Amino acid sequence: MEPQPPALLSAPRMLTLIGSVLVSLSSGTNYVPYAPQLGARLLLSHTQSNVIGLAGNMGVYLSGPAWGRVVDSKGPRIPLISAFACLLIGYLGIRHIYDDGAGTVISLVVLIACSFMTGLAGNAGLAVAMNTTAKSFPETSRGTTTGLVLSGFGLSAFFFATIASVAFPGDTSALLLVLGLGTAIPMLLGLVIVRQIPLPRASTTLGIEEGLHGPEEYQSIPSGDAALFIHENDSHTSLLDPTENVHEASSYHVPEPSTVLELVPGRIASRESSVRRSRSRATSVYDGPNVYGKQLWLSSDFYLVFVIMSLLSGTGIMYINNVGSISQALYAKGNHNYDEVEASRWQAAQVSTLSVCNFAGRILIGLIGDLVRYRLHLPRAYCFCIVSTLFVVSQLSVISVNDVAHLWKATALLGLAYGSLFGITPTIVIDWFGLSHLSENWGYLSLSPLVGGNLFSLMFGRNLDSHASNDDSETHSPLSLIRRGGLPSEHQCFDGRDCYVSSLYVTATACLIALGLSVWAGIRDQRKTAEAKREVIWVAEE
């Protein structure tokens, strides 16, 4: 007799959850605020600094499909070892160039490569943490547990920046050393404690409202054809009748291709349109959607989520990459007593606020998603509306800020929105496309921020540079007195909100478009659920 899987609140399962949170916590350090100091020491322009930051983001997002496929098929070992090596090499390489202080073309290329490696490592760790957690906890708590793991990713920048600021205040070189060692070691720890824990048996009623779950035996997630559940039943009662008695399920049985029925048109469609009949028993088939590979790329749902994520995450990436420059621009405007230390404090305050709210957003949206699904009986896709609204409000808030002392409010809203986006989307990916190929599907969707992120960040950088250039020509302006008073960089913009506000009008419009698409996503998902009630195929013997 096979041993029973550990209970849901058992020590092995909780240890895996804790290990996944630690790995995730070490995977989101691309947003740690050292770019302004690096740029000032190496005399980099805002555009060059944005290119370096985008290289890290590209490492995260471009590697998604590859890491996803490795995690789905090979498990966590290879990604975690690779993450350990890339984090060490990446951050220690950036530290070496910073200490050397040579702002050459070669050093710029190496910085881009090292930043790319840190992003590569971050995606590897996050893919392992998210995949392991999603497959180790039941569907009813999946939004909450994956949100908890993803919150570690959101808290990462604040966590490591705080450690460095307390232990080595004002020392950017020490910060980069902390990042190199502090992120690599948890990846080795993850090799020991992060592993998929089989789920115990759990009975649920049959019904579309509960996600089309039949009586099932939770085991390791199969990666092939849908599992087949067979039970004896002399009744012709509809499969969707909530009063139907729940029969005990047998073990998984892989059906022959000729008998397989998949209830997934788009996501819920039938492979056969005819009902197979035999005597004295009924056979019901469902193991959730299983859309991946070519089928994923042909799905309109995929492109809907892709566009929403591109618009919203691009807005978030732009702000995160440039929040230090925004705070410095606001602090510098009209300030004849510019203090570099004070400017750095305002910058650090924004990043800390952003990171904490990013963390909170990922946890809260997971709880909200489960509440929407199981209490309100609505699709989780409606959570996109909440996220998009937060993004719109955050952009309008940044536009209205004229004083650096009030910037934290806009930063908090943006952090909540950004964290919520990445906290709910993986769960929606599971709902729409299935769990078996979660990491691979999420990897393809992770390409979406490259579109908006690159476009909006480069736009923002060029906008700042154009204002800085205009300032350089005004040699008789009072601004020149500020520069002589100790401003650290020639590329600083002194116009306050005018340095960047035109970029925010673009992102605010993009978020409004995403809000409209989010409403459509929720309506579309609800309609498909209603359609599934009419199209469910059940097999009965006469």
Automatic annotation (TrEMBL):
Signal sequence region: 1-28
A GO-annotated cellular component: fungal-type vacuole membrane
Membrane topology: Multi-pass membrane protein
Keyword Protein transport: no
Superkingdom of the organism of origin: Eukaryota
KW Lipid biosynthesis (keyword) present: no
Protein name: Major facilitator superfamily domain-containing protein
UniProt keyword annotations, A-Z: Membrane, Signal, Transmembrane, Transmembrane helix
A GO term, aspect molecular function: transmembrane transporter activity
Subcellular location: Membrane
InterPro entries given in the database record: MFS, MFS_trans_sf
Regions that span the bilayer: 52-71, 78-98, 104-126, 147-168, 174-194, 302-320, 348-369, 381-401, 407-430, 442-460, 504-523
